[in-house]
Amino acid sequence: MRAAHSVADVRTAEAALMRQLPAGTLMSRAATGLSATCAGLLDRVYGAEVVALVGSGDNGGDALFAAAHLANRGASVRVVATGEPHAAGLAAATAAGARLVDGAVAVSALAGADLVLDGIVGIGAKGPLRDDAAALVEAIGPAAVVVAVDLPSGVAPDTGAVSGSAVQADVTVTFGTYKACHLIDPAAGRCGTVRLVDIGLADFPEAAVLAWQVDDVAACLPAPDRDADKYRRGVLGVLAGSSRYPGAAILATGAALNSGAGYVRVCAGKGVSGPVRLAHPEAVVVGEDPAAAGRMQAWAVGPGLGTDAAAAERVGAALAADVPTVLDADALTILAQRPDLLAGRSADTVLTPHFRELGRLLGVAADEVAARRLWHAQEAADRFGATVLLKGSTSLVAQPGRQQVIANPTGTPALATAGSGDVLTGLVGALLAGGASGVAAAAAGAWIHGLAGRLVGGSRPASASVLTTALGDAFAVVQDASD
Q1: 141 and 229 part of one domain
Q2: Least CB-packed of 50, 67, 69, 217 within 10 Å?
């Protein structure tokens, strides 16, 4: 998995290492890795037009020393300073033949550059870019390869937020460890391909953000024994759908059936039972009352259920069984009004809100949630004592009592379609029924859900019904990669 650390932890690790090394060693290591990446991105270094945008911090110094390496190999390098440049770095660059330019010459150089090095600001920067720096960013020509030093200027390193103008990099070269902005949108979308250069940092505390890879997902999937039967594979109760939205129950049930649940029991009334039986004859409809539905190993609750008093009573009955439960959609609206429904539970609870639903749960504006997604996901996890899977282009999984968040890397616009969340609910429910913990079910569920979307839609939306059937292929990809 990829592990990202906070700015404070990076600063501590850098300070500890610099006490053991001659002055300038870390910057030299960073610049060497940066220049090697830049050289590999150019068709040829000799004669290439390179522009280094440099601020007054260490990122500007890294960019200047890397520019010096490229100039020594024959590149035509121009330096555009947005602040007082790093003295030693500027001396090295100019000694190698780089020219310091500004004004119209700088704008012209950016328009015709083969490669632009973004060293305007670093991990210590806060807030949007200044107007002069933003204007330079806007002047970068469309043909240039843009390489960000550590992070694209204009993004928030610890949250992934972007406010105002920010560099759109093709490649980001970061040093020592990943930062949250490399893993969390919208900043992650500005980073392009992220390449990590080892500069010798060590002894980091627990990562602030993790991004699971395929091996991490495979490791937490339930693995049935050879003699497993449908009960050992997991009995999942699905409480979803209504006469107005029967499709929600169909999608959640189909997702559970395609995600390894051995036995799916659907708790539904007349308006839902017929369509579910027709769509999924292998599922068993057990009536409306969860309390009379029999013993389940997990529940998937909420999509299309309604939010009236009767629906709230049914949600409460499912939660009272005190087995692992995933709550989505209407169940979250009910929970916002009745947080007492979680009182006394000992089994894992997973909440899967989008940012508007999370705003209702916390009683804050949706825009505020969107602006501080990491913080609000963790706040909800702590307040409700539940794992929170905050859906989005980068879905986030927060755990109660821990500041570490898991960021899902497989998000795709293909999931931006009605019913996609119902599919995720059934998928997470099946993983819970199979024995996965709440955190594992949420993180693996988000990963597989995104992969299924990529398999069927790429960057285009795909119907939720098609997404449901693609889950089996997504599980196969995970299992094949782990063999």
Answers
A1: no
A2: 69
pTM above 0.85, yes or no: yes
Label each residue of 167-196 as H, E or C.
CCCCEEEEECCECHHHCCCCHHHHHCEEEE
Q: Tell me, yes or no, whether 121 and 103 share the same domain.
A: yes
Q: How many beta carbons lie within 10 A of that of residue 271, not counting itself?
A: 14
Structure tokens given for 99 = 């020219």
CB atoms within 10 A of CB 142: 5
Of 55, 445, 61, 422, give the one whose Cα is nearest residue 239.
422
Same domain, yes or no, for 17 and 127?
yes
User: What is d(CA 303, CA 291) in angstroms, rounded to the nearest whole number?
Assistant: 19
Count of H-run helices and E-run strands, the chain? 18, 18
Q: Which of 355, 2, 1, 10 is nearest to 157 (CA)?
A: 10
Same-domain pairing of 370 and 221:
yes
What is the DSSP code (8-state) at residue 413? G
Query: What is the three-class DSSP state of 388?
Result: strand
In the chain, how many domains are there? Answer: 2
CATH code for position 424: 3.40.1190.20
Residue ending a domain, choose from 207, 242, 277: 207
| 3-class DSSP assignment, residue 265 | strand
Residues 345 and 318 sit within 8 Å (Cβ to Cβ)? no
Q: Is 164 in the same domain as 264?
A: no
155 and 247 share one domain: no
- Residue tagged 């009272």 (tokens): 320
Which H or E run contains 235? strand 235-239
| C-alpha distances in Å from residue 477, one per residue of 110, 169, 352, 469 | 43, 30, 24, 14
- Which secondary structure element, helix H or strand E, spans residue 13, and what is its range? helix 7-18
What pairs with residue 197 in β-bridges?
175
As averages over each run of 10 residues, the pLDDT of the chain (483 residues) reads 96 94 95 97 97 96 98 98 95 98 96 97 89 95 97 95 93 97 95 97 93 95 73 90 96 97 93 95 94 94 97 97 97 97 97 97 94 94 98 96 95 92 98 96 98 85 91 94 75
Residue type at 424?
Answer: L
Q: Same domain for 56 and 190? A: yes
Q: Are 5 and 178 in contact (CB under 8 A)?
A: yes
One domain for residues 408 and 471: yes
CA distance 234 to 263: 6
What is the enclosing helix (H) or strand (E) of 374?
Answer: helix 373-384
Domain harbouring 172, CATH code: 3.40.50.10260
Last residue of a domain, one of 187, 207, 227: 207
